[in-house]
Amino acid sequence: ELRGKLRILQTDSSEVTALFMELSAHLIAIDSEESIFLLTFKTFEEIWKFTTYYTIGFLGLCLENLLLEQKFWLRSLEDDVSVEVSVEEETLNLMYRGILMQEGTPPSGSAESLHLKLKHGAEAGQGLRLLTNTQHTHLSVRETTPLINQISFLCSAGGTCEATEEYDAEGPDELSLAPGDRIIIVGLLVSCFDWFTGRKEVTGEVGLVKTSVVKPSDDIYETQLFLQRLKSQLSPVSLLPGGRREQQHGELRSLFSCLESQDYRAEFGVLYGLSSEAIVSSAFSGHSGEAELMAFLGAARETARKKRLFWSQTRLCFLLGKLCAGRSKFSQARVYFEEALGVPREGFTDLRLLASIYSNLAAIYLLQNNSQSFFAVTERLVALLLGVSDCLESLEDDSALKYMLKKAVLSHNTKAEARACHLLVVPYLERLLHLSSHSYLTLGRLYSQLRLPHLSISSARITSVQPSATLTDCLSSMLLALDNINRLCNSTEQETSIPTQVAPYLHQALTSTRVLQPGSEQHYVLIHQLTVCLCQLFCKHRMVGHAIHHMHTLINNRQLLSSAPERNITLIRLAWLHINNNQPQVALEILDLLLDSMPEHCTTPQEGTCVVLNLRGVALRCMGDLRRAAESYEAAVDICQEYEDMANWAVAQANLGLLSLRGGAKRLAQSHLVEAVQLFSELDDEGHEENFISVLLELGQLYVRQQQMDYGKGCYEWALLLAIKANLLACQLTATTHLIRLYCSESQDQVQCLIYSQHQVHLLRRSGDRGEEGGALVAVSRLYLSLGTDRAYRAALDHTKTSLGIFIDLGCREKEALGWLQAGNIYHLLEQTELVEVYVQVAQDVALSSGDTGFILKLLEAAGDIFFNSSRDRDKAIPFYRDRALPIAVRSSSVSCRLRLCNKLSELMLSLQMFEEGVEFAQTALDISITLGDCLNQRVAYYRLASLYHRLDQYELAEHHYLKTLTLCPTPLLFDEETLYYVRVYQTLGDIIFYDLKDPFDAAGYYHLALAAAMDLGNKRAQLQLCTRLATIYHNFLIDRELSLFFYQKARAFAAELNVRRVNISPDQQQCSSSAAQ
After folding, report:
1. 245-419: which CATH architecture?
2. Are strands 195-200 and 206-210 parallel, antiparallel or unpaired?
3. 247-280, pLDDT tens digit by residue?
């Protein structure tokens, strides 16, 4: 399982690369077979930080978050399961020494790299081992680019200030002001700095404002920092590569469409953070070197300037500046950065880009000892840092933070000083934790602000397991972990879902509450909520027994359930858990006790009677007592109807419908389900979507079974739309599956089936279920194959290759082999013969490596079927059947497979005119069929033997086997095809006797039998042929003029009816016709 996860990461390493970048290491490669990560370091600071993270336990915790499945966090509550890391101290010392010797120089190609060998088992003590290797591979930025969440951290300032004088903006990054304009402070307005970030109250424009031209309003206030999350769906980074000169025009157009946006986008944040080497190696591939890339970007910049594409020009100037700075051409870089600031535009809304430009300019000014320009730019940069913390990611170094700290100290501004220290302290606090076990929670919060979610989660985890951790520490660490887990998952599920990673925090918090003395009501409410959350996680992952245990613990503590409603709700949850755990009798006992304890006449629906009656009906239905279940549901309907409890009323109606369906009362079931749908559709509040969707799907299935396809389709599509609106991924998958089944089977529509199948693939990709995604891709490939066009074949090939990659990643050897074989089959359909044998051979090798004889046999036969079912290269099927599959079938005593192979070989050799060899396999097939008592296969084998002997001119044997075939035909005849078979066999027998054995008398007998069958069938063309041959025999050989005339006249009548011009009863002509027919 762990190796399968590593294979997936080996294919798409962006997630693991982002993790190691947080840990100050650079991923080079992943070896899934050996469970090894290959890492390298570039500076002393990186390896210093990495060893710190290892020492304080962050490395193992981060890898747990990355590699382990969801159920691990629930199993770890009882079993001591963890990932531990060990390192060879001598190796690290050598790496330290080597990097220190290279201090001040770029990393050379001989720098050592680090192997992390991963082991994971059911017990603690298994983990990572660090090894060294002198081989160094350059880091691919395309693989390591993380997806950064668009989450803004806003400094605390909810007040406004007022402009005291007119100010005309000198650049697009500033705001123009008129006296009396009100400006909302974004972040902090610190009087010792020249600028702050503000937003005009009237227009909403954001930019830099001079501190000297405003005065505070009465509502200015300063508080602690607070966090506001902005969630958005991000698209992957896609920067267009460079290319050949003739493609430059199209590339420029695509590049401008990517860069011409005045607002910040997530992919821009990744671009702004790339080094010059990364820009050359990954962001813009296809160029021979840095010089060619600079020429391309320079041409693009000039084109953007002429076309007045100001934002493209700005970002291209920024990229050119980064490239020049990377080549130590600082003066040229400064020109580009200053041009980026000076490009005419209405405003500078991409503050991250503005901060990146300021940061690069500040570094260059400091390097060139241009103090005046450095101070001017840094003042503006500090204003952005105080206003928008996202801009921290744009810093090239900490020079701006140090300037901010120094000026704050000189100005005695404690708020600004605290802010600067807060941002500068992180690496030192990390090292402090190496010496002390305190302050993990503080560090975790700092990591969270710096967008380092893996490290933040690890800090929270260590905080919660500290022996000195209090209940407050556990809850605070849980909130911190939850915040960063959601950021990492970037989930589109409903916000109410709880990730399983918080299970250890919930458990630890519950443990902390048990050692405390009984306290206030809030204390009991907290324990109740923690238990319910933990039980929800257990139930979601089908560990219902654990949920029942925790719920019983809660119920047994009488102090926690002081009020009757709270106790009732808890018992209802317990009953539902027992139903899910296949214990309906236990659930019924709980519900009956609960029902007896309730007042006889409820005054409000909130007392829970409706829910209890509904659940009671469910328990009774599970026990098979349909009558009492119906009574319970009806009682629930009556109470809900009386109190207009629409939600529970709808549930009760739905349950009645399902109960009626189980009892076979389809009309009654439809009535209840339609009523439930109507009630659900009238609900305004949220939270009922899953039940509504389930009812729609059940009703849709009922309509489909009754052949009311339009109604069924409407229910399925309504369910899908509801699931999409509510972001319920599992429900979307279920509804989509129903629609696929509808269009593939009941109401066949290939186009609709293909559309929904592709949507299913998209949903499975979102869910992360790689195995199911691979299976869905295979189904889509089959649908494309059924269309039968070259374009469809190529689409099928693309989907097959994608599924093949998934099966390789997951280590599914059988599915991988079938994927290779399917790709070979498609190449055969595309007539790309040179690739067919390659793919078929790989499929055969993978199958052989599985060691499963049954599967090997199945695949070899399927490989032969590729050629057998084709009109080209049919002879290539023989080696697969005869030389490979058949010997294995004989050794494994697979009689049915051996029979099938012999049948295919005999038919194939008959069509390829390999008659003598074909007789051997046809006879073997006959012997096996007789042994098995399989009449149908006996008929087939006799017929093939007869055909082969006929071609070998062994006419007596051919006649014998044809007659044996007829004796095995069923009587009476059931289908027209069987009668037609009689016509053809008797006609063939007549031809053999008449033309080959020269016995017209016996031949006439066979022709008469064939004619009788043809008349019974009503096949006039066959009657024409047979009458003609009988007329010929009676006229030329048996000399019966009366019968000859009779059959001749009948033949003439059929010929006239079938528009055949002439009937020729010459024996020579008939001999020619017979030869042609054979």
Report:
1. Alpha Horseshoe (1.25)
2. antiparallel
3. 556 667 777 877 888 788 877 877 887 777 777 7
